[in-house]
Amino acid sequence: MRKKCLFFLLCMMTTVVAFAGKESQYVLYEGFENGMPATWTQEYSTGMQVPWAVEQSGASEYPAQAFKGSALVALRNTTGQTQHFATKLVTPVIDLTEVFQPIVVFSHAQMQYAGDVDALYVYYRTSADARWVQLGKYENKTRGWKTDTIALTAPSATYQLAFEGVDKMGR
Fold first, then answer.
1. What single-letter DSSP state applies at residue 34?
2. H/E segment holding residue 153
């Protein structure tokens, strides 16, 4: 059996929630329409070094279309065997010191394949030498695209987010 894909993530943005008269604004918005930004990095956590890659809608049947626009970012295992690799897609440094109640909103699709589902973990760190702290985990299949929101804790001037995909032989 050939595995088609690990999972997808499209629209990552950090925004400000409107509370008490505060105005919403995007601090970072990325839809990957112009490819992988040079300011985003990747960290290989375990196993094979498999990078996240930008793809156009229709490049795969899982999912067939991007959540919004024409691009999505995917982490794929094309070996046909579970490899258990994990790769973090890391945002550039974000200054959140003056952001009121920051959140991250992102969309992901995790299809089941023969009973298996890949995992997505979301992390943050407050500086480049700080350890990653888990903000969220997504280990269940989705029916198409799912949008999630996470409140960002411990804002700093050197804040970063990481979206880690873990191969568990899902789609």
1. T
2. none
Give the pTM: 0.84
Token pair listed for 139 = 């280990």
What digits encode the pLDDT tens for the residues 53-80? 888 876 666 677 778 888 888 887 777 6
- Per DSSP, the residues of 76-125 read ---SSS----EEEEEPPPB--TT-SSEEEEEEEE---BTTB--EEEEEEE
Q: Which long-range contacts (CB under 8 A, 24 or more apart) does 52-60 make?
A: 52/9, 52/87, 52/89, 52/165, 60/4, 60/5
CA 142 → CA 26, 52, 66, 108, distances in Å? 26, 20, 15, 8
User: Hey, what amino acid is at 152?
Assistant: L
Residue 38 vs residues 32, 34, 35: alpha-carbon distances, Å: 11, 11, 9
* Confidence tier at 140 by pLDDT (50, 70, 90): confident
Given this model, what pLDDT does residue 78 score? 73
